[in-house]
Design brief:
single chain, alpha+beta, Arc Repressor Mutant, subunit A, Dna Ligase, domain 1, three-stranded antiparallel beta sheet, three-stranded mixed beta sheet, 6 strands, binds zinc ion
Length: 133
């Protein structure tokens, strides 16, 4: 994937640190700030947590990244992609993307609540196949 073009399309300055962040996110799918910090240490030992936060916030502002709030866990970040839902393992904290028919769920929620809803964030908790063994 051409990360440089993607960063530029989002009006983000391309820096070696940002390219590395994108690469780590691409490989991990979802990652919290502490794990990202650890992953960046080998290449950028002098990079501070504050700088990483600043970069991440900027990338979220430009909708290049999404911040995902998971109950009882640190927020994780992922590259923006098509809307999707998540399953989270309550034992090992593994996170997986799933595609649900969120439109029909949203319509059902509208019907039941009479609210004017336009967004949904669905997270299921349970045990992943590894932890079930
Ligand atoms: Zn698990
Ligand atoms: Zn996801």
């Amino acid at each position: 994937m051409d990360y440089i073009a993607i960063l530029q399309n989002h009006n983000l300055k391309v820096t070696p640190q940002r390219l590395e962040i994108v690469d780590i996110l691409h490989k991990n799918g979802h990652i919290n700030i502490d794990d990202l910090y650890k992953a960046l240490q080998s290449k950028f030992p002098s990079l501070s947590l504050a700088t990483i936060y600043k970069n991440i916030n900027k990338m979220c502002d430009k909708s290049f990244l999404i911040e995902l709030k998971i109950p009882d866990q640190k927020n994780v970040y992922e590259l923006t992609k098509k809307e999707h839902s998540h399953v989270v393992c309550s034992k090992c904290n593994a996170i997986m993307d799933i595609n649900l028919d969120t439109l029909s769920i949203l319509n059902q929620a509208k019907e039941l609540s009479h609210y004017n809803l336009d967004k949904s964030s669905i997270i299921f908790n349970g045990l992943c196949p590894k932890c079930l063994d």
